[in-house]
Amino acid sequence: MVRKVALFLIWITFVGYTIWLAPLDQPDTWPIVKNLLTFQLSKVNAILVAIFWLMGVWPMIYACLMFVDGRMQKFRAWPYFIGSNGTGVMCLMPYLILRQRNQEFFGTKDKWLEILERRSTGVTLLLITIGLIAYAIIAGDWEDYVQQFQTTAFVHLISLDFCLMSLVFPLTSLFDDDLARRDIHDARIFWTVALIPLFGPLFYLCWRPSLTTKLEMRWRSVSEPESFAPLGY
């Protein structure tokens, strides 16, 4: 309950901040977004380019946990995932607040879940992240970025959104439940992932064992006949 209260306070504060203090309906918002979407990168600071596309990586990180979890909830995860690709934590956090704790998974995995479960998906996201951060470091202008952060609502909000994505990940019980589904009970793994922003969750996706092993073990335990010792007389 404490976690849900904390998540709700973060969510309502950010929504209020966006609406009243840093609204996006500014004349300079659409030109920046247009340049980012049409890959006119020479017109946009490389740091902002990296943050913008990393805000596509973050929803995929959450998706790798949410879609397995959503199969066991009373509501599906996909509307929140789709919304988070456009609005970040604003659409993502309602799912994290409303979901119920669940550390089990039953049934079969569809193609989408199989893709999200693959370690290669985590590796791909990690490589994309490394490439974007390298691009920002090499080609970015930090003075210009700081100035835009202070004066441009879009740059200001997307930067805050990126930081909140990192902050929320260890706060939600979604991560704890995913660990439990895979029979991972080592607190050191939790804290390692939780304390390394962005790269911690990415390394976890590259390393975590598949749910398939656990499901097969359960199936075997049910399907294999029990062996009984002979009764003595």
Explain the overall architecture:
This protein has helices at residues 2-21, 29-37, 46-70, 78-87, 89-98, 111-117, 119-139, 142-151, 153-171, 173-181, 187-195, 199-207, 211-223. It is mainly α. The chain has one domain (2-214). α3 packs antiparallel against α4 and α11 (187-195) packs across α12 (199-207). Residues 217-233 have low confidence and may be disordered.
Nutshell version of this structure?
The chain is mostly helical and 233 residues long. It has 13 helices and no strands.
Quaternary organization: single chain
Strand content: under 5%
Q: Low-confidence spans: pLDDT under 50, at least 5 residues?
A: 217-233
Q: Secondary-structure element order, as H and E?
A: HHHHHHHHHHHHH
By DSSP, the count of extended strands is 0
Overall pLDDT: 87
The structure class reads mainly alpha
Shape: globular
Question: How many structural domains?
Answer: 1
Gap from first CA to last CA: 57 Å
- Which sheet architecture does the biggest sheet show? none
Share of residues in helices = over 70%
What is the CA-based Rg, rounded?
21 Å
* Secondary structure tally, helices: 13
